[in-house]
Amino acid sequence: MLAILPRKLFFSISSLIGRLLMVYLSVICIFVKGQTVETRLKTPENTAGLRHLDLQKRYTLNRQKALSLAKKQKWFISKKYAKERILTLQGVDTFGIPVYYTVHNLLASAGTHTTNLYNGGGLGIDLKGDLPQLNGTLCLWDGGLPRLSHIEFGGRIRQKDGSTLLSDHATHLSGTMAAAGINSQVKGMAYGAKLDVWDYTDDVVEMSREASKMLVSNHSYGPVVGWFYNESRPGNDPTRKWEWWGNTSISTKEDYRFGFYDEKAQDLDQLAYNNPFYLIVKSADNKRSETGPPIGTPYFLRNTNQTSILDRYRNDGYDVIPAEANAKNILTVGGAELKLQNGRIGGFSVSDFSGWGPTDDGRIKPDLLGVGTSIISSISNADNAYATMSGTSTASANVSGTLILLQELFYRQKAYFMRSATLKGLVLHTADKPLDKLGPSYEYGWGLLNAEKAAKVLINSDNNHVVLEKSLRQNETYQQKIIATGNTPLVVTLSWTDPEGTPTRITTQTVDDPTIKLINDLDVRLSDDTGNTWFPWVLDPANPAKEASRGDNIRDNTEQAVIESPTPGKVYTLTIRHKRTLQTGTQPYSLFISGISPQDCNAAVQLVAGKDTTLCGNIALKMQIKGDNGLTYQWMKDGQLLATSTSTSLDISQEGVYSVKAIGYQCSAQSKPISVRVSGLTAQISPAGSFAICAGKAVRLSANEGLGYRYQWQRNGSPIAGATMSVLTPTEPGTYSVIIRSNSCTAVSRPTQLLSALQQPVISTNTGTLIPPKGSIRLTTTTGEGMTYRWFLNDNPITTATGARLTASLPGKYTVEITQNGCSIMSAPLILTNVPYPTNTPATVPEILIVKENLSLFPNPVVHTLTVAYASDNTYDLTAHIVTMDGVELAGKLLYDNGSVFLNQFDVSELPPGKYFIQVSDGRRSIAKPFVKQ
Asked: Could you give the CA distance from residue 483 to residue 489 in angstroms, rounded to a whole number?
């Protein structure tokens, strides 16, 4: 796991480890023979040293191989071309082809607003890079030796290797970064800084050795790729000086190294990841100014005399940033051209030479723009010589010199340095976009460096900005409420140094390979309480000219979410989480928020009625603070964390000393403590809970007793008159509680519920209360678990009737008693009576006596169920019988009064098929109607 320490402490530990390591090596070299350096160092504590040794071994062997092949193949080691352009052999690639490096050159401090960081610049600060703690932290690797005696340097430029070749380019960049300003037109960005310089030969090995000391290093060079214009070729025809440096065995159309994540890009990412304060700044190259000869014109293959006329990619569009400049954790810088209006800067555009992204896996490159056009600075011809140059080289130096001033400002505030992810994220967070552009692009990255805006975020005089350095653990989610000012966009930028990716294999199938190189994929989101979510910017590598949209960024280790017009005072939620598994289980990150309202944590933690108090009984105390939106509160009891929440109140019921700490995105504050004492007064009822009560039987409820206790019993929330003793004997169901008072405290018991054990049962019949001749009526009553029954006729028990049903054939008063759980209750009585019916003579068919009233039978014919409907205003009980054709009465039923219609149904499914009658009678007269049974 990579531990992130403040830079000051990091330097001290690194220095100590270095000295201990030297002693350790000296001792073991005396006592251990035959062991390799790697074997002696192979301990967990020395992994950084092992990595350096591995880099040194790989790069040294590769360079030795290149020098050996150069003798055999008659390659030049270093060659000076026209206009101070120098090519230097660095190594060989996988195919044994020589790799040559060249520098990237073809009003800076004003264009990037760096002058506002100087004394009198308007911000009230005076930065020039001369802070003692910055000594040895600003470095330059380039193609030669700066003129150390130049009047602009004053002994502050120090050559750290054995280079003897004076270089205009190195002198020019040194001046851009750190010239004193003897000539006011060439004042460097960090005009008081000390600058350490190396030749770019063996750069990665030297960078690895110095990484623990450095904060910023500039690298304005790279491999010769694609089209290369060689003015040194003989002849005057400008079209016959073009060379193609692509590997034609990999691609005949383009140089595969554009956008390519190679082994050196991996090395730079690993170097940055293992040295979390070190930011590598690299130029984006100028390949869009080298687009090859007219189509069909012969050109040379590399620096040979072999020619070709095959049409190849022109380097004039997207995907023209080469090789290691595509590393994730470095700051890749393109060039901007300032637009002057009446002698003042009125905007900018991307220089026509500056390299455009994306990388092959679609990441945003370049990251940032610096001023790269017509930059005047020192050169090596004389101690007072100056010249104007353009290119991403000068843009990169412009940015590097400014970055060290931002580190100086941060150190003066905090007494430690920013992580490299913080420094990188800061300048991307505050970069200026071209007019009418909101998001990033593959042309200008995140925009043009604006040092003034970056410094304002650090100074934060209006408390509208937040800069945080945090870490995200596996499966962790970070959330923070933030309040928008509403008068500026709400901008959140997330930046992190990602573990190195796997280099892309060099094959014909991996040209423009889109395999994603991001290892730890963090995500930032903004949301509100209505369900709206704001996603970060994303670009489409398949359509690189398309403007940025919003979505899930799965490629970049910088993300930015923006709400252009937030609601003033509205609370938004910032969320950071990760996908999949984090390598090493933790990912440090840097977070920037702008456009937020100030917070007052001190006011927020003022306790409402905050004084020592006593808790009475089981009544909780609500500890309330004034609170504020966007704050998180840590509630403390006796100095220990009790709860963390956004709530402005906490219910407490225990004795102790309580306080609350408010934590916001800008502040934190602790409340004054309050002491809470708990009284022993409680109110309890015995028995407690819920149980049944039998009607008319008293239940004894007892309250806890104590000296001087005063009681008041309640039923269903209302006081019971006269119930002021510790014992209550209620006979009615209800919810009972007791209030006990003692001195200044009042306690209320939990309620005890007395439930009625039984409800009075009801007797139901299936056909009414008239018992037909030779018939009976079924009686039923309430049923329930564990119930027993006793039936009574005329108050005399029916000894055989012990169930919930009874078949009654005798008239009289019927009642039933139900017993359950020891309680009994009697039903209301039900009176049954007999109805006399005339006996029909089976000799003749019944005579129809009621002719004016309507009797309906349906369906007719019938198979199963016959419905009898008799429309009448008769007030007597009506019965219906089935009668055979020879006059024999079969089944009979009462008809139920349904308004003006009397109804009932007969089940005739068992009757033999044939013709029958339905006879309806009120005891005085009757009517009949035939039906057919099928």
From this structure: 12
pLDDT digits (tens, 9 = 90+) for 710-734: 999 999 999 999 999 999 999 888 9
Strand, helix or coil for residue 538: strand
Strand 386-389 and strand 830-834: pairing? unpaired
Does the model's pTM come out above 0.90? no
- Nearest by Cα to 200 from 99, 96, 73: 99
CA–CA dist 99, 246 (Å, integer) = 11
The answer to whether the beta carbons of residues 146 and 174 sit under 8 Å apart is yes
- Whether the Cβ atoms of residue 594 and residue 561 lie closer than 8 Å to each other: no
CA dist 221 → 464, 523, 864 (Å): 39, 33, 104
- Whole-number Å distance between alpha carbons of 503 and 266: 6
Task: Quote the CA–CA distance of 343 and 897 in Å, as a whole number.
Answer: 108
Q: Identify residue 316 by its one-letter amino acid code.
A: D
Are 685-756 and 854-933 in the same CATH fold? yes
Q: What are the tokens at 599?
A: 């917070």
Q: What is the 3-state secondary structure (H, E, C) of 312-379?
A: CCCCCCCCCCEHHHHCCCCEEEEEEEEEEECCEEEEEEECCCCCCCCCCCCCCCCCEEEECCCEEEEC
Q: Sheet harboring 764-765: ordered strands across?
A: 764-765, 777-780, 805-808
Q: Could you give the CA distance from residue 533 to residue 347 in angstroms, rounded to a whole number? A: 32
CA–CA distance from 502 to each of 25, 44, 732, 768 (Å)? 32, 23, 82, 92
Largest CA distance in the chain: 152
Locate tokens 């003006």: which residue? 900
Residue 545 half-sphere exposure toward CB, CA atoms < 13 A? 1
- Nearest in space to 79 (alpha carbons), one of 99, 102, 59, 96: 102
As a three-state string, the secondary structure of 657-694 is: EEEEEEECCCCEEECCCEEEEECCCCCCEECCCEEEEC
Cβ atoms within 10 A of the Cβ of 140, count? 29
Tokens 């040559």 sit on residue:
100
Provide the strand spans (E) within 437-546: 465-473, 478-483, 490-495, 522-527, 533-534, 537-538
Query: Which homologous superfamily does the CATH classification assign to the domain defined by 80-223+259-286+319-456?
Result: Peptidase S8/S53 domain (3.40.50.200)
Residue type, 574: L
Give me the count of residues in the chain: 934
Domain ranges of the chain: 80-223+259-286+319-456, 601-678, 685-756, 764-834, 854-933
- Enumerate residues 6+ apart whose C-beta is below 8 A from 886: 842
* CA–CA dist 329, 857 (Å, integer): 96
pLDDT tens per residue, range 34-91: 333 333 333 344 555 556 667 777 877 887 888 888 888 888 887 777 666 678 788 8
Two tokens, residue 495? 């930046």
pLDDT at residue 841 greater than cutoff 60: no
Determine contact, residues 704/682, Cβ cutoff 8 Å.
yes
CATH superfamily of 685-756: Immunoglobulins (2.60.40.10)
Cα 845 to the center of its chain, rounded Å: 92
Tell me the three state secondary structure of residue 42. coil
Query: What CATH number is given for 764-834 in this structure?
Result: 2.60.40.10
The dihedral region occupied by 445, where left means phi > 0, alpha psi between -120 and 50, and beta the remainder, is left
Is 3.90.1030.10 the CATH classification of the domain at 601-678?
no
CA nearest to 590, candidates 498, 670, 700, 701? 498
57-71, 567-581, 764-778, 858-872: least confidently modelled range: 764-778
What is the third-level CATH fold of 854-933?
Immunoglobulin-like (2.60.40)
Cα angle value 10/16/22 (rounded, 5°): 135
Cα-Cα-Cα-Cα torsion 14, 20, 24, 25, nearest 10 degrees, comes to 50
Q: What residues pair up with 797 in beta bridges, in sequence order?
A: 792
Rounded to an integer, what distance in angstroms lies between the CA atom of residue 463 and that of residue 599? 8
